[in-house]
Amino acid sequence: MDQRTRTEKIFERVRAAKLVKLSELSSEFGVSMPTIRKDIDELQRLGHVERVHGNVRLRSAPTAEPVRRAYETPVLPTSPEKALIGKKAASLIANGDSIILDCGATATELAKNLLDRQNLRIVTNALNIAILLGAEPTNRVMLTGGLFKPETIAVSGEKASTFFEGTFVDKLFLAAGGVSMESGISYPDFIDLHGKRAMIDAAKTVYLLADSGKFGKREFAAFGAMDRVDYLVTDQGLGEEFVKWLEGNGTGILWG
Q1: For residue 8, what pLDDT is reported?
Q2: Which residues, in sequence order, are CB contacts of 50 under 8 Å at separation 6+?
Q3: How confident is the model at residue 217 (pLDDT cuts 50, 70, 90)?
Q4: For residue 78, what pLDDT band results from cuts at 50, 70 and 90?
Q5: What's the pTM?
Q6: CATH code, residues 3-58
């Protein structure tokens, strides 16, 4: 098991148990105590855990008064670039297609451009997209389960990924937190990775929706997977060095 995978699993273990002995992690993952300490140091550096007397625990977030979010107001910040990408991506979808729509602002822009489509079979982890496209009576909308994430109005985690077992669709429109030459696609949290892998495995053609501002950016949880992306849908601001990198990897580029 490589360090990235091991660190991901350690974080999930600590998240579930809240407090875990380092010796237990060393035994569970079959590595030495110095190796476990190195993994914990990396998670601690990123602010996700803290080491206490031979144990590791989830880092406590500062207590704050909960804020109730009003979902009738716009909660996903968009931009002209995201709107153009969404419009271009929507042009790739025809009546009767089976599709997976990931969550996020750009995927929401895509969904806004599908209001005239009919007989779509849609699988999504985004509650707002399900509501938007479910208004068309001929569409069949399937919503995955999982842990609710208010910041994306979506569900995520292992429960979401099991939904895709035995599912196969024509097209996946995948979101990204960041894209870099070193790490490929990345996301803010390890919990996001389970569902993304399952989405890719369930699709015939994979379209990555990422504006130029996402490139050169590395989020906490590295996903890689650029070799599984057939097409990138992006805006005209994408740097030439990334264009050459993508073309060298055999990824087609569609401009919004």
Answers
A1: 85
A2: 44, 56, 57, 59
A3: very high
A4: confident
A5: 0.73
A6: 1.10.10.10
Write down the mean pLDDT value for the chain. 89
The CATH class, in words, for 80-255 is alpha beta
Q: Which two tokens stand for residue 2?
A: 């490589």
The two most distant CA atoms of the chain are separated, in Å, by: 60
Paired tokens of 52: 């206490």
Sorted by sequence, the CB contacts under 8 Å of residue 45 that are 6+ apart come out as none
- Reported as a pLDDT band with limits 50, 70 and 90, residue 145 is confident
> How far apart are alpha carbons 103 and 175 in whole angstroms?
7
**Phi/psi of residue 208, each to 5°?**
-95, 125
- C-alpha 88/C-alpha 90 separation (Å) is 5
Give yes or no for residue 67 having a pLDDT over 70: no
Identify the residue whose tokens are 């979101």.
175
DSSP string for the chain: --HHHHHHHHHHHHHHHSEEEHHHHHHHHT--HHHHHHHHHHHHHTTSEEEETTEEEEPPPPP-------TTS--S---HHHHHHHHHHHTT--TT-EEEE--SHHHHHHHHTTTT--S-EEEESBHHHHHHHHTSTT-EEEE--SEEETTTTEEESHHHHHTTTT--EEEEEE--SEEETTTEEEES-THHHHHHHHHHHTEEEEEEE--GGGBT---SEEEE-GGG-SEEEE-TT--HHHHHHHHHTT-EEEE-
C-alpha distance from residue 134 to each of 124, 130, 226 (Å): 11, 6, 31
